Amino acid sequence: MVSISSTTGPGQPRPTVVNPEQRTQSVPVKEMNIPPTPISAFILMGQTGVGKSSFIKLLDGKDLHGQEPEVSEEPESCTQIPTIYMTKLKNKPILLLDTPGFDDSARQNIDILADIVSNLHLFTLRSQEIKVRGVIFLYSIGENRFSGSQAKTLEILKGLCGEEGMGHVIVGTTMWDQNSKEFPKQIAREKRFRDKYWKGVHKAVRLFEDDESAASQILLDLLDLPPVLLLVQKEMMQPPHTLENTTVGKATMPNGYREIEELKRRADAQAEAYERELKRRKADFEEKEKDMRKIAKDLLLKTEEENRRLDRERLEREAESERQYEQVRQEFNDQMKKIADDADKREVLKREEEASQRREAARNQREEREKHDREDEERRQQDFEAETQKQKEKSEVVIAQLVEELERLETALSKMTATPDLTRFEVTINAVVEAFGFHPIFIKAVNKSEKVIRETIIIITDQIRMFGGGI
Ligand SMILES: Nc1nc2c(ncn2[C@@H]2O[C@H](COP(=O)(O)OP(=O)(O)OP(=O)(O)O)[C@@H](O)[C@H]2O)c(=O)[nH]1
Ligand SMILES: [Mg+2]
């Protein structure tokens, strides 16, 4: 495939659909070694597996990298994208545009067609260098039925070429079984198809397997014709230069495709709407998030303030509690102290009471004792008095005896008075007087004490003896 964008200039028409993936894999024409004289270009078309790549390979076609086309026996498509190959025919360079086969998939057909048209449009733009000489439409004669995809392929071919262009188409029938009983059937089929489907083509030729000369002859036959501008090439030169506005584009873009395009357009519009809505919601969300953050921040600040206030109140309450506790404790201590004091006082009073009781008891005891003592004293006094009385009585008896004795002594003494030494008698009397303070004569009258009397008796007796008197 050829990249259109690399060759189109300002104001130049552009095809509409070019598969970008495929474009990157294609070989840009400007990079190919194209000779100064216009090069003839041929387009290979036909269903998958009919032998398009084999045809090019047979003619020794090589791509930009010198690679020959890939050929596959698998039923799946081998050639995936339109690819340009170069070769020589009678020593003149030619371009062969290999194309994938069309099938029932509108989407895939459109993509393939878009690539083919891109290349054809490029050929148009470079018509001084490249001239389309015709289309080789290969058809497998082995197919006994004209399938839907074959019909679609033929329709695309006609749409591409237009009536004039179909005159530059050669149908090459492949897959002949010359040595088989099928061969006659194939010939009959060829005739039937030629009459029914291939009307208007330049010719239909048989391409037996590996028949290089037949392949070359096809190109030579086309080269005998003048260069042609296929219908799609002409249409693509007209504004708006879009595939949808070409005959083949309209034919190939069935309702399904348009619906797909419409759906795609709607989907894109919806995606854009979703994008816008998403942005709006995102902005809305961000706005709300901002608000929420602000609210959360305010709430946080309020909560912190509230917490601080609660802390303050708690501290105040704790301080108040502490103060009350201290007060209660103080009151309690005071009460305890008071109770203790009262208890002490009571204890003191009690002790005083007990002391008083003890004193009272002691006084009572003492009084009792004194009473007893008094009574004892009285008894003793009485006893003493009785004893005294008894002694007195006894003493009186003794005294009486002593008085008698004394009187006898006095008598004796008086008798002694007749003695010369009266002085001594007087000394005795004086001694008695001095000793007792009274004269012995008055003893009886003064004191009848037994002791005095006895001592008086002793003194007198001693005096008498001293003076030699007889007692
Ligand atoms: N019997 C027979 N086999 C052929 C003929 N031409 C090609 N083949 C074989 O058919 C198979 C497919 O050939 P390709 O050249 O890859 O077919 P194609 O048209 O390029 O297929 P796509 O690239 O898939 O579109 C290969 O195995 C070829 O060898 C023929 O004329 N007769
Ligand atoms: Mg192929």
UniProtKB/TrEMBL annotation:
Residues 1-25, 337-392 are annotated as: Disordered. Pfam families: MMR_HSR1 (PF01926). Transmembrane segments: none annotated. Residues 43-112 form the G domain. Residues 1-10 have a biased composition (Polar residues). This is G domain-containing protein. It comes from Discina gigas.
